[in-house]
Amino acid sequence: MRNILLIEPNYSNKYPPIGLMKIATYHRMLGDKVRYFKGDLKDLVIDELWKDCLNDLNFIDNSINWNIKQAIIKKFIKTKNSQILSELNLEESKSELLIISKLDNYADIFRKKIYTKSPKFDRIYVTTLFTFYWKITVETIEFCKKLVKNPKELHVGGVLASLLHEELEKETGIKPMKGLLDKPGILDPGNPRAKSIVIDNLPLDYSILDEIDYEYPTRSAYFTFMTKGCTRKCSFCSVPILEPTYKPKIETIDKFMDIKERFGDQQNLLLMDNNVLASPKFLEIIDEIKAMGFYKGATFIEPNQLEIAIKNLQSGYNDNSFMRRAFRLLHELVPRLKKEVAQTYYNVLAENNLLDFDTTTKEGILKAYPQIEVIYEKFRLKSPKLRYVDFNQGTDCRYVTEEIMQKMSEIPIRPLRIAFDYIGLKKQYVAAVKLAAKYGIKELSNYILYNFQDKPEDLYERLKINVELCKELDIAIFSFPMKYIPLFGEEAKHREFTGTHWNKKYIRAIQSILNVTKGIVAPANKNEKTSFFEAAFGKNLEEFFEILYMPETYIVYRYDFRDDDKIGYTPVWKNEYQDLKTNYPEEWELAKKIIHDSKFTEEIIGDTPLTPRVKHFLRHYTIPRGSIERSDTAYQKLKAKYDKLIKEDQFIDLTLTYDFETSNVRRLFKSTSIRSRKVDKLAISSHL
User: Fold this and answer.
1) Same domain for 59 and 184?
2) What is the DSSP string of 230-260?
3) What residue intervals traverse the membrane (predicted)?
4) Which has more confidence, 157 or 619?
5) Do 164 and 28 share a domain, yes or no?
6) Which residues make Cβ contacts (< 8 Å) with residue 524, sequence separation at least 6?
7) Does residue 316 belong to any structural domain of this protein?
8) Beta-carbon count within 10 A of 298 CB
9) Residues 6+ positions from 625 with CB-CB distance below 8 Å
10) Which of 352, 382, 412 lies at the terminal end of a domain, its last residue?
């Protein structure tokens, strides 16, 4: 039995690692021990050291319940702060000095990285995602080299590894795996039990998701494919490289049933197909989706997840995961209980040391369950919920026909995603949306690519088309502007790329507009006099470009800076902007060069040969966003509206994707003290 570690780098993402979930299934089939981790890798090391430390401590003095002291001991191992030892209350132990010596030893193992001399894992898999996560991915790989017994058993795969494989090998010395694990025996060619297993065809191991603290936004959903690959060869897309062969139908029912049996029924169906409408078997696919229980009006009642966790604990399937899940489920029920029932339930948890996860054991959970089984079943949530299907990667409007749209209307599709990658698709896109409305599909969504070969006005027009369709057809279209980043080369390794027709200021302006709404451009209500779109992006192209040139702080805190009874400098900027652009075109060109580069430090402005008028105008751009307290009531109301929308609307929660603010800006804002964020109106007045 091998010790297998699955790692996803510690970046934020909405989908669980499907590849690792299949690899987990594969290794369990071979009888290997599997662990999944996402987070600070130092914490992983601490966890592993704790296991060895616990064995040693029990050997020294087994009269002490060391589990209840787990958090304290881990903290000491990590910091070697001797003051922490007093919290262990070791005075009554005859072996106090020996215990302290042992803890000191483990703290040294961690701090001096002695653990790297005796790695525990026989094989480590690191998945990779977007290429702009290059830095954290490389750091993760380098750290994992210290944890694997044989560097040849460190396997790196996924999107970044497939697209930048040569660069990644040069950087790390690890030869990454490219593409899919779609052939038998790829990982263990010498193992007779593995030679017939095609990993890409295996069901997902959902249990690994409960092993970590990180919570993926997508919940209670089946993740699967009905097709693979794409018939298109779009130059901005990685699919032709990652999945070069189009497969018009993937066998899904058996995997679906396996997942349902092991992990329980899931509410929604998220299909990750890259171009499902291209399949000549699409009508069959819809029938199969309906057979899986996802038909129009289908409802879902949550199965007894605690019972499922208990069955898996009894069978020994991933004890670490199902212990964590059982503990969470047990405590989620507590607020629903009253009086005597609550006391009885609490007593059972207390008697079996289940009040804190550090003291929780598999044996304690299995012993407690028969005593609270009836209470749990009676009071758990059992209200029916509607089910939804989401072709999450979008559908291709060029394949839409009346027959296809009518067939899609037979399943609870929410939202229907129709790609609108460039303005040249306008005719087909509008026709597809109108067909959707005709067949009662009222909620739509799309990712709108920008910063590629498009122009800013193309983005504006596509967003406006959606607004107009919402009003005309009385439907809801949620748009997600998505910034293009190259697939290859140095520019793929970060998020700073600017397209031919774009500049850094334009991109920052779009990101600032979307900051409040977490990247969503909301649908227009036909009864609204002024839509969010017009307020955010302008009533016409002239206003749109005016907003693109507006100082970022004025965009985000628009009402604070617009109104005369507050700070009121947006009108000042606007008048100066119009005057400079109209009456002093040569000076406007000087100002544009600095504005387009979006660097407004006093050093840059001071060191650049500029006229007094231009320098005076650029003072508006030197107020950093982090210096403003978010007290703008209009900002707060709009943000609250979208936070509520995302919280309450299942399909928004399932599909949340955005890249509206760089990590550097977020870090800067967090590091700025509350006091320094407050605007001194008098100071700004003198500055302006």
Assistant:
1) yes
2) -S---TT-SHHHHS-S-BS----HHHHHHHH
3) none
4) 157
5) yes
6) 467, 468, 470, 471, 531, 532, 533
7) yes
8) 19
9) 512, 552, 553, 556, 557, 665, 669
10) 382
Query: Residue 71 belongs to what H/E stretch?
Result: helix 70-79
The residue among 151, 198, 180 whose CA lies nearest residue 25 is 198
Q: Do 14 and 153 belong to one domain?
A: yes
pTM: 0.88
pLDDT for the residue 23:
98
pLDDT at res. 662: 37
The model's pLDDT over 502-559, given as tens digits with 9 standing for 90+, comes to: 999 999 999 888 876 767 787 766 666 556 788 889 999 999 999 999 998 888 776 5
Burial class (CB in 10 A: 0-12, 13-18, 19+), 265: middle
Segment 104-124, tens digit of pLDDT: 999 999 999 999 999 999 999
Dihedral sign for Cα 317, 318, 320, 325, please.
Answer: negative
- CB count in 10 Å sphere of residue 261: 11
Whether 152 maps to a domain, the answer reads yes
One DSSP character per residue, 454-492 reads --HHHHHHHHHHHHHHHHHHT-EEEEEEEE---SSSGGG
Question: How is residue 640 written in tokens?
Answer: 């609250």
User: H or E stretch including 450?
Assistant: strand 443-450
DSSP 202-231: SPP-GGGGGGSS---S--SEEEE-SSBS-S
Q: Is residue 107 part of a domain?
A: yes
Residues in a beta bridge with 445: 417, 478
Q: Which of 367, 382, 397 is a domain's end point?
A: 382
Cα torsion angle, 603, 606, 609, 615, sign: positive
| Domain count within the chain | 2
661: amino acid identity, one letter: E
Give all strands of the β-sheet with 268-271 in edge-to-edge order: 221-224, 268-271, 389-391
The length of the chain, given as a count of residues:
688
Give the single-character DSSP code of 280.
T
Give a yes or no: residue 398 inside a domain: no
pLDDT per residue as tens digits for the range 142-161:
999 999 999 999 999 999 99
Q: Which helix (H) or strand (E) holds 677?
A: helix 674-677
Residue 38 belongs to what domain range? 3-195
* 412 close to 387: Cβ distance less than 8 angstroms: yes
Locate 556 and state its tokens: 């985000």
- For residues 153 and 23, membership in a common domain is answered with yes
Most distant CA pair in the chain, distance: 88
| 149 three-state secondary structure | coil
- State the average pLDDT over residues 441-452: 93
Is 309 in the same domain as 188? Answer: no
DSSP at 86: G
Highest mean predicted confidence (pLDDT) among 126-135, 552-561, 650-659, 672-681: 126-135
With a cut of 80, say whether residue 332 has pLDDT above it.
Answer: yes
Are the beta carbons of 479 and 421 closer than 8 angstroms? Answer: no
> Residues 370, 375, 376, CA angle at the centre, nearest 5°?
85
Q: Does one domain contain both 315 and 169?
A: no
